[in-house]
Amino acid sequence: MKDIVSPAKNLACMTEPWAGSSRKLQVAIDGPAGSGKSTVAKRVARALGYLYLDTGAMYRALAVTAMERGISLDHHDALGEMSRLVKIDVRDEDGLFRVWVDGKELTDKLRGSRTDQAVKVLAMVKPVREALVSLQRAMADSGGVVMEGRDITSVVMPRAEVKVFLTAKPRERARRRWQQMQQHGMDVPWEVVLGDLVSRDNKDLERDWGKLVRVEDAVVVDTSGKTIDETCVEILALCEARAACCTD
Ligand code: CDP
Predict the structure, then answer these.
(1) Whole-number CA gyration radius for the chain
(2) Looking at per-residue confidence, does 128 or 188 come out higher?
(3) pTM of the model
(4) Pocket test for ligand 1, best of 54, 55, 110, 113 (most atoms within 8 A of CB)
């Protein structure tokens, strides 16, 4: 076996990309809201020296664009056309996943209750999903990518070498979300956050297209009671094992 530099062992210093293997993997991570996908996927990508793609942010950027352009969320054909015609650029920079649509940066507008409401509806629109899925596949084509979302293991990269279903107990996910909101000065009762999370879970699980499913060959990683580092080490170990078996 080649002398592979272990990214799992190097997590603490994470400045060195994983240079030991020439094989660039596709790493697909799906999971419900609040499971820690964004934080974990971003750190795993950095440890591997891979591209990080937050597909939720791409759906959010299209929701913002539709609102700014006055396109009704009921008008599926117009939403599909908009999604096919716009140019979406993304960059993971200084810990921030930045998104531009037709040259206009929307990063600051991706979070917030209007976008939260709009994206839930827009993510159910088939032509929108088709446009984003084909863009995401093109971005992942040459490997060396960690992509996270809801339909990555099932639809976008069904042949990814590493597939992870990241989850945590609903109460734990709601607690994390509540804490984040408190930090941003949003004083919402915990029960409301939990209720919203459960309703979002249902929407993610029940929609016709791109629903959150656990594919058979995905490794389930439950982040309840684990630190971010522990979770990252677990996923990096899966990547290491796959890279080792591919290069032998
Ligand atoms: O961070 P949070 O879990 O709140 O949401 P997100 O990951 O930013 O996703 C925003 C919305 O896009 C949610 O309604 C997801 O269901 C949807 N989404 C999707 O349909 N497919 C993806 N691949 C990623 C997100």
Answers:
(1) 18
(2) 128
(3) 0.89
(4) 55
